[in-house]
Amino acid sequence: MGIAILLLFIIGYLVGYLAHRKADKTYPSCAEDLAPDDGEDMAPIETVPSLDWSDITAMFKSKLTTDSIEKSLSDFSSDSHQAGSPGDEALANKLMGRFKSYGMNPWTDEHFVRVQDRPTSGTNKVTFQNKTYAESGFLSYSATGSAQGAALYAYYGQVEDLRRLQDLRINMSGRVLLVRAGKITPAEKVANAASVNAGAVLIYPDPADYSFERDTDLFGHVHLGCGDPYTPAFPSFNHTQFPPAKSSGLPAIPAQTIRASTAAAIMKGLGGDSPRGWGDGGLRDVVYKLGSESDLIAVEVNNVLTEKKIHNVFGVIKGFIDADRYVVIGAQRDAWGPGYARSTVGTSLLVELARTFSEMVNNGFKPKRSVVFASWSAGEYGAVGATEWLEGYLSSLNMKAFSYISLDGVVTGMRSVLSKAVSSPTDANKSLYSEAGSNWEVSVMEPMKMSDPAYPFQAFSGIPSVSFRFTSDKEYPFFGTVLDTKRNLDSKVFNLRVLTKTAGEIAGQMALQLVHDHLLRLNVEKYTNTIRSKVAQINKEIIKAHSMSSFAHFTLRMQWLMSALGSYSRASRNLNTNIQNSDLDDYEQCRIINNRIMGVERDLLSPYVSPRENPFRHILLGSGSHTLEALREHLVAIKENSASGNIDLLRNQFALATWTIQSCANALAGSVWEMDNEI
Description:
The protein is of the alpha/beta class. It has 21 helices and 15 strands.
């Protein structure tokens, strides 16, 4: 029995062995199956070929021509294209056609926005000394109704101008302020007037600042913000359930523009003292006086709130590697009148850049990232079209859009902006960079203001943004009038089409480098100096407060804020060190670094305030109690025993601003184990 069992085991083993050998028959692997039959090595995975940078710039300059620019300037010139009008829609359709002809798949973004327009019947009126002046110009979003009070000349209506009036012991409560246009926006003038309880504001173009006829009307808006003020922080898409909300930037007092001729008639009738240094105006046969309590003036504003359908138009050239990352190039399409410098030049450049980039792609250029071309409507009402788009896609845009380049108002004079690679429009042998000199940042750079079309991209959405322009020592005088024509722009610049081409080269080469290079050329270390400057100002006020005997109990210390500044400084330096030590041909490594760079602007948006109440959440460039500038101003108010000062509120401001900077530094540091969190 034992021998039989052993024999059966051996037979079973042999049968199993033979069956296993058949199952082990080898089959071709995936790699072998895909290999060429002739035995040659398998070809490497194809990568996107990239032209040399010098070849790209040469191709770009050759395709962006003055002749094509001149044709587009002619094609997109229009005498009437106010937002939502048939003229505006006709330009939008023309843009759609152009984008399609360039091989793009364009699309539109439709919004229903509420804007304030001039009265449909009748006019806005100003009455002084029993004479009524009917004004055709208007300021959108003004409070409507009537106001009456004593006239008071307040120069440009800046904060320092009103402070001077306060120093003269002049009570501005209920007064009708007469201010000159310029220096700051109408919205800022009205907000400043409201802060001293003025009853109304009249804004006029003084001949010393504006070289046009005295009967020219002015147009503008007085919303201290951007976008549709009746849908704050959310988009005005169709069928959106609009809540009963409005922007905190809407004024509560009437505001109206008046002609220079009307201002002259009022100024001649004013009494009071002559303000020293404020009599430099150009009103003929007028002695500039402040006005007395008996100089009563009445203002009647009958603007009408209407709903308009507007369209933003888009085209895109998709990237070949990071198609989901894009730079946006945008331009305003609408205007109060012809708007040649305001909108025609920018729209024409937008079209020409889209054509040039498309032709470059057809000739072998393969951008790594995408380029979106955007034409905005309702820009004259405060970047309404652009802001509504940002509000509609806020959660994704600041993760995907890594830069915005504005083409609005790029040509209004001859003083240039900086670029090493762009020739001077006046001397082809020199670059704009060499013309700027060694101290170029002081020469050509200035802080971005709320009136800048790129401002909502930077301060609301946290997208790195730039706007630029050729200008003159004096501001272009025809913005906000129907005199912004080709003829008047030609009178201010030499060879408009050459200057427009130069502006196109600046915008185009910025965009090309952003979509071509492995790394985004955005220097995060620059913010170190900006933050350090703000922190130094805050520290100065704290030292002053500690030196006052009345603030012996004041125990606020700078250690936390200084530590956050140090963390950001180290993180930005370490990032640059990482870049220098990294293999920039490693695609994944570059993407990780680019993500850290893109996050800086977004991380400087305060997460502790509501976008609805404080839409411009950027702590360095925004506005509101969350900013570092507001923190400094609050310190000053407490030091001066102002009623607005509150130490407990100040401590909250201090802590939240500190942690916003620290959080930005943590994100910039990269991985969680590299974060500097020793506060």
